[in-house]
Amino acid sequence: MAHFESCWQYLTTHFSDFQLATIGSFIIHESVFFLSGLPSICFERTGRFSKYKIQKKSNTPASQEKCILRLVLYHLCVNLPVMILSYPVFRWMGLKTSLPLPHWSVIFSQIIFYFILEDFVFYWGHRVLHTKWLYKHVHSVHHEYATPFGLTSEYAHPAEILFLGFATIVGPALTGPHLFTLWLWMVLRVLETVEAHSGYHFPWSPSNFLPLYGGAEFHDFHHRALYTKSGNYSSTFTYMDRIFGTDADYWKLKTLESNRGKAL
Ligand SMILES: [Zn+2]
Ligand SMILES: [Zn+2]
């Protein structure tokens, strides 16, 4: 912790709170998003790890490039201005940058709370996005990729980008976190959604070890199915879909696949 605190002191003495909360958050987000999202594009192009690929179909290099270009455009023209304009809101909700850094138990419990709340808000918002008008005019952009790869996780209509941003900050807005906790939350949420869209289910994928965690297979089904029947609306966990019965088609398919596997 002492090492983190000396790094943190360096940042807070060389940069203003505004610079750290806006430009700093943007740089961290872009670095983590593109670095974690690019491997699945490389795997698709080279055929590496093809036995772990969830769908047989692959995206063309042209469609992958279209996704990257659109993301760069939206991140610069939507995400960055939103981060700058919402700075007063973050200040108002009690964002701190001072030392000492919060205790690990506080960071851990706040981040668990953010994941649970984000998943809840995302589940209901996502169900609304699957109603006819909103799907046609907004959410169909995200579903352009029926075979997702990591970077498609943030490929969405600007209105949906705003909704995703809202779902992400509603937890921090309630707890008034330290900027360090907010950055860690942002990094984990990006890694989670990139993994869910990666298109690969590895033996080391987190859904093999974490109970109630959705992961790539769970969200991949959502992209494959027809929009009225897709189900699996949650972002991180599986229990909301289980409670409200929106995972029935997914589990039917899983049972069918495992029975077919046993028969062979
Ligand atoms: Zn959807
Ligand atoms: Zn998706």
Describe this protein with a few key phrases.
single chain, mainly alpha, 264 residues, binds zinc ion
Descriptive overview:
With 264 residues, this protein is mainly alpha-helical. It has one domain (2-259). Helices cover 66% and strands 0% of the residues. It contains eleven helices and no strands. The protein has helices at residues 2-14, 17-46, 61-85, 87-92, 104-129, 132-137, 158-175, 179-196, 215-224, 239-243, 248-263. The chain is globular and about 65 Å long. The model has no long low-confidence stretch (mean pLDDT 93). Bound molecules: zinc ion (ZN) (2 copies). Keywords: Endoplasmic reticulum, Lyase, Membrane, Transmembrane, Transmembrane helix. It catalyses: a long-chain fatty aldehyde + 2 NADPH + O2 + H(+) = a long-chain alkane + formate + 2 NADP(+) + H2O.
Instruction: Give me the secondary-structure category.
Output: mainly alpha
Which ligands appear in the coordinates?
A: zinc ion
Number of continuous helical runs: 11
Oligomer: single chain
Share of helix among residues?
55-70%
Instruction: Classify the beta-strand content into a percent band.
Output: under 5%
Number of strands: 0
The largest sheet is: none
Protein name: aldehyde oxygenase (deformylating)
InterPro entries: Fatty_acid_hydroxylase, Sterol_Desaturase_Related
Subcellular location: Endoplasmic reticulum membrane
Enzyme class: lyase
